[in-house]
Predict the 3D structure of the following.
Amino acid sequence: MADKGGINAVRTSFQIVHALREADEGMGVSELARELNLPVSTVHSHLSTLHDCEYVTKRGSKYSIGYRFLEVGGSVRNHSRLFEYARPKVDQLADEFGDKVSLCVLDHGLVAYTYIAKGEEAIETDTFTGIRLLPHSCASGKAILAHLPDKHRTDVLKRRGLSQVGPNTITDRDELLTELETIQSEGVAFDRQERLEGIRSVAAPIPREGNQPNAAISISAPISRMSDERFEREIPERVQNIAETIRIKLRYA
């Protein structure tokens, strides 16, 4: 029986895409079929179509994700007013503090990192442009959650849950909601090694304006560079000011 509207066929294509995403050296048709419990003929048909459309590449008998996904995502980002106004401010903060500064947006209940700038003292972590994280596990996510309408926030938490990600991740709903109330009143969120051990972050929300997504801007650094006055006062005040500047531009420019 044909899939109504082709929906299941599209889902199968993206199951294949996500499986390829996890394979550093690519995967063959039979290997993919076994992993996804699909007929070899089905996997081959989907891969052939994805290859023809230039979304996967083929080397020998193995397939890998193609760079056209980057082209599509980059185009969406670069045509955004949020990115236009925020990018120079993200660069400015990275130069000013020397750490890693990120612009994030809420995407299907996850926090998507759309732009990252690195100062001279920034260290490498697992975040990269395009990664999507659980919102309760990071400062940017909590900043966004705190400023969502109640129903929207409830829907996000129900959909994504409160799984343990790092050593100090908040997994209790009441505890998280209490912290979100504090974030809403103070206008700044903190990540106290909640996702990555040894890393602290500070984030301020950029509430939704017009057709732009809910967003946040954050600074992340090792605890050695995120201590005392710098972590509790200096960086929060600066990040809040920058976020407010971006919000005003989105509203009036």
